[in-house]
Design goal:
The protein is of the alpha+beta class. Helix content is about 15%, strand content about 40%. It contains 3 helices and 10 strands. The protein has a 4-stranded mixed beta sheet. A 4-stranded antiparallel beta sheet has the order 6-7-8-9, with no helix packed on it. A hairpin with a 4-residue loop joins β1 and β2.
């Protein structure tokens, strides 16, 4: 009788599925409010798939910025380079993928985030190598409004993030 009960329980238990996290990195050149917003949006499973389908033309899936060979190694990364013209000048934006491993089947290989650099002229005014930590929460680069405010103090007496904000949509 016990084997029959065990068989019935195993038959009715739903299979377990791992959650899949989807991310979009991008920017909004908001000329009306005279600001540049970097965005890093993420969602799990069906919501993440829907998010990818509704992305703006200034958003990218970090996985799409990689060239992965048949050997499952990342052979190249692509950097998205764009400009945003605001009242005080032109900002150059560079968005890069930041994979967890150069081999997609090894530690953190199925994990990816992105980073961004914003320049005005030749001066780097914002640099974030990773918008969030890796699959084991190491090498953490906090990307939140509090950190942005702390880093926006003063550079040569001028607020360097006067036109830059970082937004997260949960």
């Amino acid at each position: 009788m016990k084997p029959l009960i065990a068989a019935v329980l195993f038959a009715i238990v739903l299979p377990a599925y791992a959650d899949t996290f989807f991310a979009l990195v991008g920017y909004v050149c908001d000329k009306q409010n005279d600001q540049l917003l970097l965005t890093y949006d993420g969602a799990y499973n069906e919501e993440g798939e829907a998010m990818l389908m509704q992305k703006r033309s200034t958003q990218w899936d970090p996985w799409k910025l990689l060239t992965i060979g048949d050997d499952e190694f990342i052979h190249a990364t692509k950097t998205v380079r764009r400009q945003c013209r605001l009242s005080d000048g032109i900002y150059q934006i560079a968005i890069t993928p930041s994979p967890g491993n150069v081999h997609i089947q090894r530690r953190c290989g199925a994990w990816i985030t992105a980073g961004a650099i914003v320049k005005k002229g030749k001066k780097t005014i914002y640099a974030m190598p990773r918008f969030h930590s890796d699959c084991h929460d190491s090498d953490i680069f906090p990307a939140d409004q509090e950190m942005l405010n702390e880093r926006s103090i003063q550079a040569e007496g001028v607020p360097v993030f006067a036109k830059l904000a970082l937004c997260f949509v949960q």
